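[retry 2/3] Transcriptional regulator MraZ: previous attempt timed out, resubmitting with same input.
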Amino acid sequence: MFRGTHRHSLDSKGRMNVPARFRDWLSAHCDGQLIITIDAQSQEGERCLVAYPLPTWEKVERRIAELPSNNTAARQFQRLFVGQSEELRLDAQGRVLLSPNLRKFAELDKELVLVGQIDKFEIWDAARWDTCQENWLATANGFAGLGDLVL
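[retry 2/3] Transcriptional regulator MraZ: success.
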């Protein structure tokens, strides 16, 4: 589904090209429909957006709907994650228009990095991605706690 790291530019209108490999999958499996929202679990300095194919989003949404409405953390998460989500469709050139609200949250400038995450992909400001990646690589020994997952 969604693998790899792809660098793209945001145009002056806020449109983002979707990598051909991602675009092909989206077109074949969900008619180019996707949901983009904020990463509500971002750590400080790691703000990004998350893009879900519509069928995957619908599964996520069902799980979120099952959260207890009397749980304050669940309600806050729902308000941020679902409340900031936007339903988009690829245009004829394979682009999506990122709203000013989404761009502001992730502090997206001109250069972007799209990072495949198997069933979804993340959208990062390129400079922030580069910094975070360096930090993660510097502390990669912390991955040992994942056991056999790390090959």
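[retry 2/3] Transcriptional regulator MraZ: Helices lie at 20-30, 54-65, 72-81, 100-105, 126-138.
[retry 2/3] clearing retry counter.
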